[in-house]
């Protein structure tokens, strides 16, 4: 609703958008304080139900912080009310996915996300942005067509759209639903559309797409894995394959934004590899990846070879190093705890591949860590509000350590430092 109000009150666009993210932030914190899930049955006969629990809280918190940082980052820019309205409509529709527990509600929410994301990507109205936006919309619509057919088959078998009905549905239903969600979430081979979309979009949009939008595609997969034990192994397998699949692309990529996009594929694999603890990793990845995309937008070039030939400001380099260390699993940052918790919840056949993916992540992010830096006073600079957005994300990376203090033991610390040192 706030997104539409922004159209009516364009002079208050930034303030209303920021207020919407604060409401999401407050609601996510409220969910963390609840001892049991909040449920709402909308249509009993059709299995349409909303569930807000701890998993939802992590995803909504991620969405709130990332969107808030993007709004602050653009506070002093010339973006119109249209951008903020679409960003908040996108924000709200993503949140709605995180509380759905039936296939038809997820379908409606994902379709709204597709339209809102299309409009945000196309916002610059350049030939390139329009092509990338249309490409994204086409891929999303085709994926959701398969998903919808699968959802109808689930209803036909159970007279219900509930996730639990997937167990009694024909195998074709599972295949079609999974096909749609895997494409939408950018998982394994079906995620090869993701690098171009995320890297060629405008900086703020890249942060939103990689930080939260792709999470909407994998959330139903995680929910199904937690509800139906038979699917847990399959989801873990896709997670492992996705994590290892993106590593060579990430390591050998010479374009900074494309490298970050391939890194997103790898990190999505980590999230799916351990569904029971996926919320914490989702939060950490959303904070890190949106931060790195926002910082990459200020770099003098996207090409790593060119970046090695010119210094960047010390302040910018420090921010990049903190975010890069977090995604590599360095102690004192939440990426360390998230990786340790994920590793703890792996099954034996996943461990080798996921550890290799962690090593690959450290190797790839070293490209950012070893960029030359100096006290530079010329070139592109972040505005004060831009720095507020970056500081918000970096501060959250430190604060989120509180989620899993048990990670801080000699074994985990030694392993993390060893992987980073090798990388």
From TrEMBL:
Record flagged with keyword Nucleotide-binding: no
Membrane topology: Multi-pass membrane protein
Pfam families on file: Proton_antipo_M
GO molecular function, one term: oxidoreductase activity
The entry's keywords: Cell membrane, Membrane, Oxidoreductase, Transmembrane, Transmembrane helix
Domain NADH:quinone oxidoreductase/Mrp antiporter transmembrane: 101-361
Domain of life: Bacteria
TM region(s), chain numbering: 15-35, 55-74, 81-98, 104-124, 136-155, 175-194, 206-228, 234-252, 287-304, 316-333, 353-370, 382-405
GO cellular-component term (any): plasma membrane
EC number: 1.-.-.-
Enzyme class, first EC level, given as a word: oxidoreductase
Compartments (UniProt record): Cell membrane; Membrane
Primary residence: membrane
Keyword flag Protein biosynthesis: no
Family: Belongs to the CPA3 antiporters (TC 2.A.63) subunit D family.
Function: NDH-1 shuttles electrons from NAD(P)H, via FMN and iron-sulfur (Fe-S) centers, to quinones in the respiratory chain. The immediate electron acceptor for the enzyme in this species is believed to be plastoquinone. Couples the redox reaction to proton translocation (for every two electrons transferred, four hydrogen ions are translocated across the cytoplasmic membrane), and thus conserves the redox energy in a proton gradient.
Protein name per Swiss-Prot or TrEMBL: Hydrogenase-4 component B
